[in-house]
Each structure stands twice: as C-alpha cells, then as structure tokens.
Specification:
The protein is built from 16 helices and two strands. The protein is mostly helical. It has one domain. The chain starts with a helix and ends in a 5-residue tail after the last helix.
Length: 304
Amino acid sequence: MRRTTRLLVSAAAALFIAALAQVGLKSARTSPSAPSPVAATPAVSPSDASSRPVVAAPAKPPPLSSSDRLAELDRSAAAGDVDAAAEFGGLLGVCGHYSPVSAANIEESVVTGMAAGLEPPQIAGTPAPPELVILLMQQAQPELDQRCAGIDVKQLWEGQARAPALLERAADAGRIQAMLDYSRHAFAGYGGVNDMLSQMDEIARRKQKARAYLRRAASLGEARALLLLGDAYASGPLEKIDPQQAYAYMSAFFRSAAAQDWPPRLRELYLQTLAQHLDAAQLAQARAQGLQLYRDFEAGAPLR
C-alpha cells in the first residue's frame, strides 16, 4: 500500500491542479488506424525467382534508450530546435512524477489515501469529492501513459527547473502544446511559497506569459485552453480563485468537442463542486458567461 499512497500524494495534486488539460490525445490513441495500402504482388515463376538476387530488408535501427532520447532532445533544443524544446520541456514538466497505473489502482490509491487521512486537492477552497478525484485522475492517465511511458523519470527530477524556459521558447514560436504545458509548469523549480515570494517580479512575468499563452491557444482553436483557464480560477495560481469564473470557463470547455469523451459524471461533479460557492444569481451569470465563452471560442473570437 505504500506505493499507492505515494502515488496519491504526487499524482492527485499534480494531475488535479496542473494536468487537467490532458485531453484530446485519448481519441487519437484509441481511434482505429486506417489499414495501410498493400500493393499487389506479381506472380513469379520458379525460373524467375532463381535468377533474381535476394535483397535483404534494411535493418531497423534499435529504439533509443530513455537516456539517449532525452540527451538527443536536449542537444537539439540547445541547437535551436523549437519542437525539441517543446517536447523536452513537456517531458521535464509532465513526467517527473509519472507512474504507470490502472484505473482500478487509481481508485484504490485514492480510497486508501483518504482513509489514511490525506487531504484531497481543493476546488475553489472546497475539498474535491473522492469520486471526482478518481475520475479526474483516470481521465488524465492515458495521456500521461502516452507521453511518459518508457522514460526513466529519475532522469527528469533534477532538470524540472529547466522546463519553463524551454516551454516558453517553444510557446513563443507558436507551439500550442508548449503553451498549454507552460501554463501548468511555469513555476517548476521553485521550492515553495517563500521561494516564490522572493522573486515576485519573475513570478508576475510568468503568470502574465501563461495567461497570454492560454488565450492565444484558445484563439487558435485549442479547447484545452478553456479547461486550464477554468482550472486556474478554481485552483490558482495563475488567477485569483473565483468560482464564478471557474464555472464559466469549465462549462464552456464541457460544451466543446474536446470534452465529449469526458464521463458525464465527472463533468457533473466538477460543476456541482463549483456551484456550491455560488448563489442563484451568480450561477445564472456563470452559465450565461460560459455559453458566451463557448460561442466566442467556436467563432475564433478573442476570449472576453
């Protein structure tokens, strides 16, 4: 049980607060691939076959090891490759606490951890219901598996503080995934609140960058930016916690095509948790604002 408890501590906080935008890849991974076209093979007579030289198929190079792959990405990023910077920065930010885990084990870890007295992550100051924590972690896990499988996470721990600079460079060059990853890992490498307070100018700069990236990503049609903006208002630290704004952005995201593979129960629980903080008038305003945000997003208009 130690492993599942440790997983809850690292994954529940990181996935729930920082990795909620990890949607969009699941459908690509689970969609059946189109069959590769196969050219018709002409009939060959025995005499023809004996007179033709045998050509060996070219050997495939062995896959890169985790250390070689990371080293190659590091070299390419240093040489100015923004795609390598986006991928390497994303791995440093996202995969540092990765563990492969099944949906059943996620449920067990949450139940075991909360029974042991571990506090769940909070949404707008309210502890998230255990069912919601489980559903969010289960929703996030497939993309983590896709991005992080085969990576030796121990190699990433010491380099996590490098993630923001790499992602910022790639985001400035227009890489949408880097924009999303930056907003989740802009403060990687800081040791805590006191460390952040000692560098308030830099923290303010990174917050401004992250907000701008999310709005830019949304204007380019990336619905996960709505999700991360909603999460920022629900949990911080990019925005001051505001359950009405969080409800508006989350409800806008839940209308989008990117959210349609999210379990209905997850969407219901998340909005219910936010709605606890709103009176009837505020809830009506949040719903109206969410609808307008979604319409603006669909039209490619700047978010209000």
